[in-house]
Specification:
Blueprint: H1 6-13, H2 23-32, H3 38-46, H4 51-95, H5 102-169
Length: 170
């Protein structure tokens, strides 16, 4: 074990007291747990009854960021859709003029088709973006849950170790 006492762990985290443990340092603490003496790790974790709240807050922060991104994305998509529609409306009005040559009509039709292609391309990009966002949210939520499991798992392992030692003492 690399860390044998609380003082070594505090020093490694760069804190003076456990009250100074930020969310970032909480994550570092969780990552350090395999290198800690089990007894020491459990004593420290017991000082954090709010760990469940930390995990919930982390998931909530991920959800808020995701919702904000989705909202901004939706507004951007609506803007692109509206702009393409306005361009097509203008082109359609031009196309309805009686004195157009075949080349002018062909050009206007091609421009209408081009706006449709642009719109489809933006839609495809948006779907890829949303897929990536969903994956990031899933990874973030999984990480928060994994931290919770690490803390709870460490406690259960230590308690079962204590129970095993008690049964040998009898």
């Amino acid at each position: 074990m690399k860390y044998k006492n609380e003082a070594q762990i505090k020093k490694a985290l760069g804190i003076e007291s456990w009250r100074n443990l930020s969310k970032d340092k909480m994550i570092r603490f969780a990552a350090m747990m395999p290198d800690m003496d089990t007894e020491v790790a459990l004593k420290i974790v017991e000082q954090f009854p709010a760990f469940k709240d930390f995990a919930k807050d982390a998931v909530s922060a991920i959800e808020r960021a995701h919702e904000s991104t989705l909202s901004a994305n939706s507004q951007s998509q609506e803007h692109v859709q509206r702009a393409c529609q306005e361009v097509r409306d203008i082109l359609r009005c031009e196309l309805n003029k009686d004195n157009l040559s075949w080349e002018e009509k062909k050009f206007l039709i091609e421009q209408i088709q081009e706006t449709a292609r642009m719109q489809f391309q933006k839609d495809s990009e948006n779907k890829q973006f949303l897929d990536g966002m969903h994956k990031k949210v899933l990874i973030g939520a999984t990480a928060a849950i994994a931290l919770s499991v690490a803390f709870v798992g460490g406690r259960v392992m230590a308690e079962s170790k204590d129970d095993s030692e008690d049964s040998f003492d009898s």
